[in-house]
Design goal:
With 66 residues, this protein is mainly α. It is built from two helices and no strands. Helix 1 packs antiparallel against helix 2. The longest helix is centred in the first third of the chain and has 26 residues. The two termini are 17 Å apart. The relative contact order is 0.15. The mean pLDDT is 90.
């Protein structure tokens, strides 16, 4: 259950980062790098979530239950 909660929370943070990048893209007119930082954070979180799910499956925290 903890893995499911962590996954949902990380997904919400990823979506929040994506929307903040959109807001920064629309609002910043002078070439600020806040959009790039928000998108970089989103990519890093996505990779971390992917690795977390792979490790959780490897150690049996998620997967098929019989």
């Amino acid at each position: 259950m903890l893995i499911k909660i962590a996954t949902v929370l990380i997904l919400l943070v990823i979506v929040g980062s994506l929307f903040s990048a959109l807001v920064f893209l629309l609002k910043d007119k002078r070439g600020s790098d806040r959009t790039v930082k928000a998108l970089t954070m989103r990519i890093g979180l996505s990779i971390a979530l992917f690795l977390l799910l792979i490790l959780a499956a490897h150690f049996g925290y998620i997967g098929h239950t019989l």
